[in-house]
Amino acid sequence: MPFTLATWNINSVRLRADLVAKLLREEGPDILCLQECKSPVDKIPVEIFQNLGYGHMVARGQKGYNGVAILSKLPMEEAGSHDFAGLGHARHIAGRLENGVTIHNFYVPAGGDVPDREVNEKFGQKLDYLADMRDWGKFDAPEKSILVGDLNIAPREDDVWSHKQLLKVVSHTPVEVDTLGTVMEAGKWVDVTRADIPEGQLYSWWSYRARDWDAADKGRRLDHIWATPDISNAAHGSRILREARGWEKPSDHAPVFATFDL
User: What is the structure's pLDDT at 140?
Assistant: First the structure.
């Protein structure tokens, strides 16, 4: 069964419901995973998405911040959620398709501005969250699974506009990259996007602070699609919809896509 999946940090699903609808109408992914929904589940404008054919949703919400949701045209049942690092945040939800594939949707903590857990509690929380993800993968080995979301780390040198200038900037520091690597290794995850697009600069996030984000092009690849080895070879067609970053009142993230033939 072929299906196309997209992941997008929407930065408020209520504020940008029209952009979600635009993506669903124009691109038509079978499954859309959203992060930073900033809404309780009962306030998500689900009717808009249902009217476009997305009759299934699993979600975890919080008022004003965090929040993750999976919208699907395909039948999907909730497959649980984890409170990694015990933060009490709505940062993970899982859904299972009828073909047995489980989709894990993550919103990893951003980690604040200072890459030192001794002076920045948020950075410590980020590292603890990743450590819990690593242990989860190690002791509950995933099978037939896809992991997506805003992982808030750009791991490769060509995942950022300047490796040298960002080495001490949160999202590309060696400790974050190394820790994310242990998460991948523990679950034997395959980076689907980079398997499909192995070379070249690739970004999914551009700061609001840039006067002209497109011209400056100081991006980072913070949004990811991974798969377990038993299905990673079935993935193809990866792309990032850069143009969505230029839509009216956009999120600072662009949607990332992949297709799976299973």
Answer: 84
